[in-house]
Structures are given as structure tokens and as C-alpha cells.
Amino acid sequence: MNDAKTMGSLAEKLMSYVSTTPQQDANYDIALAMLTHYGKLKNLSLAEIADLCYVSKASISRFCRFMGFDGFRELHDCLLQDFSIGTDYSRTFYDKLCADPQAALQDYSEEVIRNIRVTTAPENTERLAEMAVALANSGRIAFFSHHFLWDIGRHLQSKMIRMDRYVELYLDYTQQLACARSLQKNDLAIVCTVGGSYPMRYPTIWNGLIAAGCPILVITQNTSSSYWNYARFVLGCGVSNRNDVGKYGALMAVDLLTLQYLRQYGKEYL
Asked: Would you say 47 and 57 are in contact if contact means Cβ atoms under 8 Å apart?
């Protein structure tokens, strides 16, 4: 199976760049123009996108390489494989949301609460103390996920850096692969994959983690996957990802790790 270089939508990548770059240069202007007209990009040619961004075709080609693509064709292929809002929400849920929004929101909240309860159940949290020790004693900590769970990793980064532990987090496929291959046996890899598909979608990165020989901590709802035979720890994050509620369980799992680390090692930081 070949790895897909796209770890999320092009929109996610563009928004991350626009939101974090300190330089509002030509690349920033192109990215912002693409986001402003995002819905029509997949139907436009290189020349048409260049006109839309008020730059030359060569500038768009350079921008594509700047964003990590081989060229315009690869960026355009990414657009054609993009994720619609229907990826997150079912038509049934949408119809109910329109017909009876209160009932739809009640169903939604119950799924969220169910995920949090399952995540915080004693049978799921019994190895948290060992996980905190691994966080404390590892040389490096690296967080691996799809772009859609980047915010979960960013939350962990924000919490842990205030307790003097830096968690590496990379959006791009190439950077994640390089990180996986550079890890050592005394490092820790955290793989956050609600549905458990990360090893199947990115086998080269997963195999890189296995070859590195470092402990792997997996956050997932698919806790029985045979892939986790290579993981030292598996932390469940609920049981449902219907209508995108799985992210709340994943966030709760990361909070559990943070709170356990605070309990064991954080007194001096309070």
C-alpha cells in the first residue's frame, strides 16, 4: 500500500499556514486568496488560479512547492480528494438538525458525554501512572495524527510545555515521516487516531515508528486493533465518532494524560 501524502484537506494546510506565519509576503497573499475562493479552486486551471491570486503561473507553481507539493498537479489532486462537511455529519443528522434542532443537539450531546464517560472509566485509566512515567522519562515526545486531530496535539503541546516538556507536532507527511525515522529507543511516540486507521493510511510512518523501537502510546476508539501489538500503551477515547463526536473523547484522553502528569510531576509548576 502506498502512503498518501495528504494528511488532511488542503484547506487545513492553508489555514494553518495563514494563521501561524509571521510574514505576510507573496506566499501569504496567495494562500489567503485561495482560502477566500476555496470552493471554486478545484474547477480552475493553473492559469485561472494565477489570475484569481493576481500572480503569474510561475508564482503559483513556486507556491505549490513551498507548501510541500511536487507541483500544481499534486496540489490540484489534493483539491479533488478534498473532504466535504458531509464527511463529518450524516444526512440523517442534518435532516434532524433542520426538523428538530433541540432533539438533534440532545442526541449529539449524549454521544459526547458517552465518549467522555468511557474514556474516564477506571478500566481505561488504570495505566495512566505508567504513561506519565513514560512522558517524564522519554528523551523526546512526538505526536502523530491526521490534520483533523492537530488541535488535540496542539492542546497537549500547550499543557506540557508549561511543565517543561516539549511535544513535537508536525502537520506534513514528510515531516512526520522524518520525525518517526529519527526517534530513538528512549523517546516516546503518541499516535492519535480515533478510528484506528493511521497505520493503514500511513504505513511507512507507522513502520518507521516500529523500526525506531521507541515506546508507542496510542489514543483510539479502536482499542482491539492488531496494529497495537507494537504499542506499549493504548488509551481509549470513547466508542462513537458519529457526526464527529470522537474528537471530544480524544481531547479527554489527552487531558487525562496531562492531569496525571500534573499529579505526579507538576507540583513545582503550580
From this structure: yes
Q: Looking at residue 50, what is its pLDDT?
A: 97
Asked if residue 5 has pLDDT above 70, the reply is no
Domains along the chain? 10-80 (1.10.10.10), 112-269 (3.40.50.10490)
pTM to 2 decimals?
Answer: 0.90
* Angle at 209 (CA atoms; ends 7, 146), nearest 5 degrees: 15
Question: Which pLDDT band holds residue 6 (cuts at 50, 70, 90)?
Answer: low
Whose cell is 503561473? That residue is: 57
3-state secondary structure of 13: helix
pLDDT single digits (tens) 205-237: 999 999 999 999 999 999 999 999 999 999 999
Rounded Cα distance between 6 and 23, Å, is 25
Q: What is the DSSP string of 132-175?
A: HHHHHH-S-EEEEE-GGGHHHHHHHHHHHHTTT--EEE--SHHH
Percent of the chain with pLDDT over 70: 97
Q: Which of 167, 155, 129, 172 is nearest to 248 (CA)?
A: 155
Q: Among 194, 193, 187, which Cα is nearest to 211's?
A: 187
| 233-236 sheet: strands from edge to edge | 167-169, 141-145, 188-192, 216-220, 233-236
